[in-house]
Amino acid sequence: MPQPDLTLTPAGPAVAPRYRTRSATASPSPSPHHDHDRPKAAPANPYLRLFTLPGTRAFTAGNLIARLPMGMFGVSAVIMIAAAYDSYALAGAVTATGMAAGAVTAPWIARLVDRYGQARIAVPATAYAVLGHLVLLLCVHQRAPLWALFATTALTATAPNTGGMSRARWAHLLKGDQDALHTANSFEQAADELCFMLGPVVAAVLCSTLFPEAGTLTAAVLFLGGVLVFAAQRSTEPPIAPRTTAGSPLRVPGMGALMAVFLATGAVFGSMEVVTLAYVDGPVAGPVLALQAAGSCAAGLLYGRARRTARLRTCLAAMAVLMTLPLLAASTGSLLALAGGLLVAGMATAPTMVTGMGLVQRLTPASQLNEGMTLAVTALLGGIAAGSATGGWAADHAPFPAFGFLIPLTAATLALTLCAATGVGRRAPA
């Protein structure tokens, strides 16, 4: 049996032992039978390298299944309620109530995930949220009183931040490798865009071809099943870190300013969706709007291959500039030009979100990582709600057709101004 030979070097003992064989002087003859013993070269593609880590494919698959319903529940609820009560205003109010409730409870759910672990909290929280969606479905099917719809939609607010939990796993697995973590965050952002691009389409097809409740029912099954698969991957779950600080991550220097930037950025997304739907106003509105998500998805994947991460201020400046394209395209009255403008404008979204979420990861203590990322999502949702309301008002009171597209441009400029004025990200720890 060969014996290890630990040799000393100027830096100390060698880490890897060298083995002597019985014929140390003999030159080993090459043999094809030993090719399988040679270490395999790492894939050149940075995304493929991510999934060479054990367990990453399984938790990613489960998380994607769980994340797709996030783009399905809202559209499914609107179609289901509107079909039963013949009121889109009621449907919008009920879904807005669920979103508002989720914005309040999400940071608390994330705090529990940080304290007790992903599997221990995410599974019961998801089961409770799915139960709320099913109760809402039954209430709508039975034409329950309106107050019952608002009460039951609040039960869905325990849904955990599946994207944040996935990003937390990558942060744990790739700790110390900022380039790989940048690629992982880019992948996650592209996955977000893909799910929110496909989710509404899948929901609309199910509700229109089967029955109005089909979208909600399918989304509930996918959500619970995906979280169960994700939570079962215990080998990649981040360990519970000891709490090193008390209170909210908002107390960390720079986090408050960063949340303000996220709030303004969310207003870009919310207003752009509403003003585009109002401007196009037809069956092609959905596909035209989806081009923005497609541009973001493609840009996110390209950004993940970059060796360096841009500053948040640079990304926001690019977003502010590109938001002029939909405005100019809408001014021409050409739907084709607007589609192209949205596609290019969307390319600033993913790099901005990847860079912003990277800052959240670096600023937030490890013991509060899920809570910090969920606060960022909550700020985005608040901005989306404010942007939707402002965009709706602009669409109704527009002095000229393209007026509404001034709102996302203004919101992007505000986000850039806040970032530059506060200096957020310049002194973030590496």
Average pLDDT rating: 79
How far apart the termini lie comes to 46 Å
Q: Using the alpha-carbon principal axes, give the shape.
A: globular
Work out the number of β strands. 4
Number of helices: 17
Secondary-structure arrangement, i.e. CATH architecture of the largest domain: Up-down Bundle
Strand content: under 5%
Largest sheet: 2 strands, antiparallel
The helix/strand class is mainly alpha
Can you tell me the CATH class of the largest domain? Mainly Alpha
* CATH fold-type name of the largest domain: Growth Hormone, Chain: A
Uncertain ranges: 1-31, 33-37
Give the neighbour order of strands across the main sheet. 1-4
The amount of helix comes to 55-70%
Tally of structural domains? 2
Instruction: Round the Cα radius of gyration to an integer and report it.
Output: 25 Å
Give the topology, please.
Blueprint lengths: L3 E2 L2 E2 L2 E2 L4 E2 L26 H5 L5 H12 L5 H13 L2 H29 L1 H24 L4 H8 L8 H12 L4 H32 L4 H19 L22 H26 L4 H20 L7 H11 L1 H9 L2 H11 L3 H15 L5 H28 L9 H17 L8
Antiparallel strand pairs: 1-4, 2-3
Keywords: Membrane, Transmembrane, Transmembrane helix
InterPro entries: MFS, MFS_trans_sf
Pfam family, one: MFS_1
Structural overview:
- By secondary structure, the chain is mainly alpha-helical.
- It has two domains: 174 residues, Growth Hormone, Chain: A, CATH 1.20.1250; 181 residues, Growth Hormone, Chain: A (Up-down Bundle).
- Helix content is 68%, strand content 2%.
- It is built from 17 helices and four strands.
- The chain has a two-stranded antiparallel sheet. The chain has a two-stranded antiparallel ribbon with strand order 2-3.
- Helix 8 packs across helix 15, helix 10 packs antiparallel against helix 11 and helix 11 runs parallel beside helix 14.
- The longest helix is centred in the middle third of the chain and has 32 residues.
- The protein is globular, with a radius of gyration of 25 Å.
- The N terminus is likely disordered.
- It holds the Pfam family MFS_1.
- This is MFS transporter.
